[in-house]
Amino acid sequence: MNLYEQQQSNRRKTWLVMLAFVALFLFLGIGFDTFYIGAGRGVLPIGSVIALGVGSVSAATSYFSGDRAVLLSTRAQPVEELAAGANADDTLKLRQLENVVDEMSIASGLPRPKVYVVPDADPNAFATGRDPAHASLAVTRGLLDTLDREELQGVVAHEMSHIRNLDVRVMTIVAALAGAVALLADWARRGMMWGGGRRRDRDDER
Amino acid sequence: MLAGLLVAIVVVVVLWAVSSYNRLVKMRNQALNGWRQIDVQLKRRHDLIPNLVNAVRGSMDFERDTLTAVMEARSKALTATGPADAAQKEGQLTQALGRLLAVAENYPTLKSNDNVKMLQEELSATENKVGFARQFYNDIATSFNTAQQVFPANLFAAGFGFKPAELFEITNATERDVPVVDLSRH
After folding, report:
1. Which single residue of A26, B121, B163, B178 has CA 20 to 30 Å from A10?
2. How many whole angstroms separate alpha carbon A47 and alpha carbon A21?
3. A117 or B82, which is more confident?
4. Please, what are the domains in chain A?
5. What is the phi-psi region of residue A139: left when phi exceeds 0, alpha when psi lies from -120 to 50, beta otherwise?
């Protein structure tokens, strides 16, 4: 599979994931209407409508700002911010990271992604964003401490290839939508605990 | 019928000529832009070198020859015109710089100096950027040259003033050698 086929397949996967997500929400909404409100009573299928709305909005949000959600959840800090308050040794390390990213963006012909450092001792790295022009690349503190310049370059090159292949688009959306599903599961669990299915309870508990 | 066919053929040929001409113009601009990317990095390297030489001068006073060689190679590189010439002169500068950095390894005070460490990082980053920008430029320049040389574009490319782009490459075989550093003198 060449680069363009890979990009094409990732674009397709993104749509599939988003459609499946909206379908899942719709399914849950229909279920809500059927079991809580009761189908075929001539009332507006309120659950389905809300579910469809919430599902579409969260899918769209995850497409446009899923990268921010991912970066926030890992408490990643922009490298420029870190460099402002760093000591001499750290300044060198962070500068090295920026330089390595610059080098790899020249080599790949992509715009330079925003660079973040995650305060985590485990060596790891990830890239996120919806396309190369809106991409971010994060490495953990542990990775910076463990690897030398050449090794770091290898890791950054790998992450740049994820950006170029649009793998980041699929993964960012999957991560953000999985978060939304977790949220939904949490709500459902609470709803079950309080309401069960008796309409009287649901009316005054909420 | 025959006239219609002739008109159709003429239209097709004209359309083809226009689109190939535009394609060549686009590629020429891409190659120029690629060359500018290299030029930016080379300029940055030329700016960094005096800083490095000044930072190490105090501790490496008796390495005068090495330092002079770097500064001389730098001023020669500044006068380079065009990719092929620049590649040759920059190659010599890389060699002189490599020798300086290798010799500097023998000075513990320099090795632990934050300023020198930062300058070294910037220089090696710039060197890498030159390398990657060169790869990128040579790729574009090669496809530009190929587009001019294939039939039938070769019939009119020169007539419209397209010239093959010079590649940025090391032509002299001796420059490919790793610089030899003789440490026995110290």
Report:
1. A26
2. 16
3. A117
4. 3-205 (3.30.2010.10)
5. beta
- What's the pLDDT tens digit per position in B140-168? 899 999 999 988 888 888 888 888 888 88
What is the amino acid identity at position A91?
T
Residues whose CB falls within 8 Å of the CB of residue B84, separated by 6 or more in sequence, listed in order: B166, B167, B168, B169, B171
HEC sequence for B56-121:
HHCCCHHHHHHHHHHHHHHHHHHCCCHHHHHHHHHHHHHHHHHHHHHHHCCCHHHHCCHHHHHHHH
- Residues in chain A, pLDDT under 70: 1, 37-44, 191-206
The complex's ipTM? 0.70
Contact yes or no for A136/A103 (Cβ under 8 A): no
From B114, B125, B135, residue closest to A88, measured CB to CB? B114
Show the tokens assigned to B85: 């010439």
**Statement: residue B177 has pLDDT above 70:** no
User: Could you tell me the two tokens for B12?
Assistant: 């097709």
Tokens linked to A161: 């290839």
Measured distance CA(B115)–CA(B142) in Å, rounded: 40
Catalytic annotation present for A159: yes
What is the CATH T-level fold of the domain B28-175, as seen in this structure?
A: de novo design (two linked rop proteins) (1.20.1440)
**Out of B114, B122, B132, closest to residue A106 by CB:** B132
Instruction: Report phi then psi at A127, rounded to 5.
Output: -125, 150
The reply to whether the predicted model has a pTM over 0.80 is no
Pairwise CA distance, residues A112 & A156, whole Å: 12
Pairing of strands A114-118, A135-140: parallel
Cis peptide before B152 (omega within 30 of 0): yes
For B98, residues 6+ apart whose C-beta sits below 8 A from its C-beta are B179, B181
SS3 B97: helix
